[in-house]
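Duplicate of earlier report; Fructose-bisphosphate aldolase input re-posted below.
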Amino acid sequence: MPIATPEVYVEMLDRAKANEFAYPAINVTSSETLNAALRGFAEAESDGIIQISTGGAEFASGTKVKDMVTGAVALAEFAHVVAEKYPVNIALHTDHCPKDKLDGYVRPLVAISQERVDRGLNPLFQSHMWDGSAVPLDENLKIAAELLDLTAKAKIILEIEVGVVGGEEDGVVAEINEKLYTTPEDYLKTVDALGAGEKGRYLVAATFGNVHGVYKPGNVKLRPEILKQGQEVVAEKLGLPAGSKPFDLVFHGGSGSLLEEIHEAVSYGVIKMNIDTDTQYAFTRPIVGHMFTNYDGVLKIDGEVGNKKAYDPRSYLKAAEQGMAARIAQACEHLKSSGRMIAG
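Output:
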C-alpha cells in the first residue's frame, strides 16, 4: 500500500484508541533498517509507524553531508516508493526535535509538506514531534501552539512531550528526577493551550517514569496510573463522560518495561509506543554473529584472500533485516491489549 494518506493515518489512530491497542513506532537510520521495519509490520499483518530522529536523519544523509533535512527527505522518498510493495499502511513520523533544531529540521520539513499539499499531493510526513521537555512548560506549549497551526494546515499531526523522558537519546540527555511524572496541572495547561482537537490533532507524550536507553525492570518506577489521572482531569474539564480518553498518548522510553505495564498504559489511551533500543540490538546481533562465525572469511588473515561471500554486505544485512523484522513483529503482538492490531 502507499504511505498512509492523512485520512488513513487518522483512521489508524482512531482505530487504535477505540480498540485499545498501540502501534510500534520504529526508529530507522538507513534504507536497510527501513526495509526491516516494513518487513516486520508486514509479517505481523499490522499497520505501523516508522520514524526518523534528528541524528538518524543526519546519518542517513551521509557522514560527509550530515544534513538532517536531506537525510529525512531521502528516507521518506525511499519509503514512499518501497512501501507500495507491502500490504500494510505505514505512517512516517519524525522523532524528538529539541528547540535548537526546529529551524533546521521540523520547520523545513513542514514547509516541504505544505508545498506538496498546495500542489494537491499528500504531505511527505504524516506527523512530527516537537520535544519541548527541556524548556519551561509555558514556553513548550507556546511553541507547540505555533507549530500546531502550521501542521494542521499541512495535514500533519503534531506530537509534543509534556514532562521529561529521562536518559539519553541522540545526544539529548535528561535527568532522572520528579519531572519524569506529568502532573494533572500539566495536562490541563496542555488542553488550554492546544485545545481538544478543534485547532488541529496532536499526540501527547506524557511521562510516567519513562527513561530512554537500556534499563532493567525495577530501575525506574513506571506509574501508568498517571496517564489515567491525566485523561480524567481533562475529561472532567471538557465535560466528557466518565471513562473518556481525550488525549492520544505516546509511550516513550519503554525498553525493559513489563508487559503488564505496557498493557495498562495502552488501556489508558496510549496509541503509539516508540521502540528504538530493542530494534537496534535486534538488527546488530545477527551481524555480530556473522562476523564471529565467519571470522576468517570476512578478514584477509595472514595474506589470505578471505571469502567474498562472507564479507559481501548483503550476506549479513539480510540476517540483520530478518532479526529486526522479527523483533518488530513481536512488538506488534505485545502492543495488542483488548483489541486487534491489524492492517486496515
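The chain has one domain: 6-335.

Merging into the original ticket.
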